[in-house]
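Ticket opened by: R.M.
Priority: normal
Category: complex prediction / small molecule

The reporter submitted a protein together with T4K and asked that the result be attached to this ticket for the collaborator who will pick it up next week. Submitted input follows.
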Amino acid sequence: MAIKKIRSRLDLAINGAPPAFHEPVHVGRPNIGERDVFLRHINQILDNHWLTNNGPMVQEFERRVAQYLGVKHCVAMCNGTIALEIAIRALGLEGEVIVPSWTFIATAHALYWQGITPVFADIDPKTHNLDPYAVRRMLTPRTTGIIGVHLWGRAAPIAELQSIADERGIKLMFDAAHAFGSTYKGQTIGRFGSCEVLSFHATKAFNTMEGGAVVTNDDQLAEDMRLMRNFGFKGYDNVIHPGTNGKMIEVCAAMGLTNLEALEDVVAVNRRNHADYKKALANIPGMTVLDYDPNERNSYHYVVIEVDPACPVSRDQIVEALHAENILVRKYFWPGCHKMAPYRELFPNAGLTLANTEKTASRVIILPNGTTLPESAIPVISSVLRYLVSNPSS
Ligand code: T4K
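Result attached by the on-call engineer:
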């Protein structure tokens, strides 16, 4: 379907006003809390003359996050990827580690970057999270760990993965980049496995501009990671550990403290938007909005739709048409890590055991959400989607 053709037909559908939005409506537009609160924190930083290196704002942020999640330790870092790398190293993972391919590439790269082989296991197509049976199939004598990902903020099958790890005597940790404040069986994410890794990137429901953290109840692990994020220094002149620079800066912690106060409001808006999308997109042939368990907490940040073969228009045609309307949807995490460098060359046959991943990757579209979404966005986006599906190209 040519874009031009779609545009002209869409113009008819939305009263001849091209494009649907004059300003782009993005997936990933940051939620930002009260400006005055942020500026007050910034003034405090400037007055303190303390900008980085475990300053008071970072320490306060760590205390507040640990308290919010109900965990003993929050080790704040400069971003989620470095936090993953440090957690992986602190846990002593090596050889092979099982991960989903259906995740952001950082999950796999954090292993590969350290000479560890990511082994991709398939997902449950209903939840988009690791399928424990698929994980079992990928175990080898070289497997030292599993990294579960709580994709879209929905908890991975934690109990089943923990059983596998316990049976095999291997480590289990979680990439909780999407799951700040989410729950599993009513308990807040952050306490499961050996540790859980958060991302506070600008595009997340809760952000510190750039930032991340490892949260854990393990005292020794937390201590090791604190050393590792600061070159291994204990005191001024004493390096007792190999390390890197993974520190969060004060300005990022200030943003975090500001946004923590706004989080409940962000989640309420997201949740309402998700419900509105669901209602507006009901009964479109071949299109479903991914549901979250109403009994668990989730930030509802990711509005995920799946376009299956029953839909008269393909996923890629829909994405192309929406982009032409300034609706900047995303295909996270197409095509799957196993089809990206260097993994596609290293494991050219990985797809043979990743049927659900490949099917899901070909179907998913992420719709815009968050506190910056214009009021008209959901009705307009939904009518564009309905129009596309009821007017497939000839
Ligand atoms: N594990 C998982 C499962 C993850 O999803 C991620 C990150 C990580 C680990 C690693 O954590 P970090 O090291 O990133 O802390 C984004 C983010 O960069 C990345 O954090 C995130 N996942 C991933 C899902 O998405 P892109 O490639 O989508 O970013 P970009 O620049 O295209 O931005 C998306 C949209 O947001 C744009 O259309 C514009 C808008 N935007 C973006 C920024 C940064 C704004 O309006 N304002 C902004 O400041 O990767």
